[in-house]
Amino acid sequence: MRYLLITLMLFSFTTNAKQLCPINNDVAEDMRINEADFTKEKAEESVKYLAEIVKISNTPFEWFSIPNSTKFIYGYALRRKALLPDASKYSIEQFCKFYAQEGWYYD
Description:
With 107 residues, the protein is mainly alpha-helical. The chain is built from 4 helices and no strands. Helix 3 packs antiparallel against helix 4.
């Protein structure tokens, strides 16, 4: 039973932690967006947030929250394509290029 639990824990860790790209160490760790944060949930939150800004433009932090939100939407689309079982090398390279150039928060 113990071995089954250990195996399940290791399996869930490896499937959720698939890192496609090298980490850009030129970006400070507290400013870096984790590759695994480009999720459907974050993209959906970003879409809702941007829709609210369009309706009611009184958020004082729009100047950096808009680019951060669009990064999550675009990053999710690229990462999703790169994680497909039949993903092309180009799809993975395209996501990694985005991640290297845009994988950080505006603050």
